[in-house]
Known about the structure:
heterodimer, A: 106 residues, 3 helices, B: alpha/beta
Amino acid sequence: MPTITFLEPDGKTHVIETPAGVSVMEAATRNLVPGIIGECGGCCTCATCHVHIDESWYGRLESADEMEQGMLEGAVEPGPLSRLCCQIKVTEELDGLIARIPAGQL
Amino acid sequence: MSEPAATQTIVIVGAGQAGGETASELRKQGFAGRIVLVGEEAHVPYRRPPLSKAYLSGAATEESLYILPPAGMEKARIEFIGGVRAERIDRAARQLHLSDGRVLDYGKLVLATGGRARVLSLPGADRPNVFPLRSIADVQALRAHCLQGKSAVIVGGGFIGLEVAAVATKLGMKVTVLEGLPRVLARVTVPEVSAFFERIHREAGVDLRTGVQIAAFEGEPAVTHVLLGDGSRIAADFILAGIGQLPNVELAQQAGLAVDNGIVVDEYSRTADPDIYAAGDCANHPNEFYGCRLRLESVQNAMEQGRVVASALLGKPQVYNVVPWFWSDQYDLKLQMVGLSAGFDRMVVRGDFNSRAFAAFYLKEGRLIAADTVGRPQDFMFAKKLVAMRAVVDPQLLADEAVSLKTLLPAA
Lengths: 106, 412
């Protein structure tokens, strides 16, 4: 099973083993990773699953679509590596992905 | 506020999104005691919004709806009792009596009992092909009838009705929507936005009728026709009733807790009983932002209030002071709404109601109090911030598509 690493703002690390096929947001919420809410359930509507993808991984992901880009603009303190992790599907290729959780989602 | 001891038992009645979020948040915040989640449905907590969208269309599986799948519940040490009703609260003994005869001792009790679909009270409405839409089981029953070429009659032009109309149309069905009021979405938005969605549905081929009275559902043993007040008939293979919901307050009521359009709670989501809390569709809270009591029916409310309850239970009370937001997916369109527009004195439109993307902003005394957007996610996100700030905004800038709402934020 692929492994995803979530880093909290204070450096606390959550290494999550997750089946492929779920979203990175679900990998977090189903394992009670704090700071990723996923209010809309994964339909790119709330921006409460905002993360900063590790630089080494960002370019390997499929690009954000127009809707996600629009939502990200208004997320809490977006940056160049921002993504809504409900829009990233876990695959075997993403084994080792690192996502940084922002200080706030709301 | 008395903090539960680490060994105490927190019992949550209702395994919907509010109950599930309360349980998850308790664990996220480090509560080490026992958590028991009691659900009337057999399922672990699941997401309801996709029921009338991706789950009905077949794009989402049942498993994908689960917020915490059974293995995750086990790992989080959340005990789940499914398929059982909570029958009675014995407040003096701090016990919850279940329909299977079990009695649970609680230290703290959370009522997250949600709501139930309102049923039609018309002749023939008890026929087997008249469906509500609130649960996985409802959609499973409904889906068996959603076949290409069949005729669906949808009663109610609210979010559920219109979302089902969109899915059924895409599945190649003949769809009729019957709304009793003069326009769809009348409870939640302005006539212009209602007209926008009426046009979208009609363009998609839906026979959408407003201001319509239904006299009866005809046919035995199943409904075959809907008889309208004007004497005309519409053929129907099934009926979907999307006419709102009623809060499940009976358990609280029987226990002597205050009920007034929902279970009455204070700003920390506590009932008058210091050991009983309530959250979600069933709860009525004092909203400081609006200066009145509100009972909200939304995922945001279920989840945020669930977290507020968890914090209060752990001795870290937070005032629940939400600015409501809602969304609806219909066809390729996403409607995002923030704030409650009731009482606005000026509407400003960005974009064009005759296209497939717009933002409608609602102002009151110069301040932005609400917005409805379609296909304008940036505008929605910044409107959310501006509404929360009660920002005074320049209507001309709001109307100008070239101006990013970001620039209207006081901090920018």
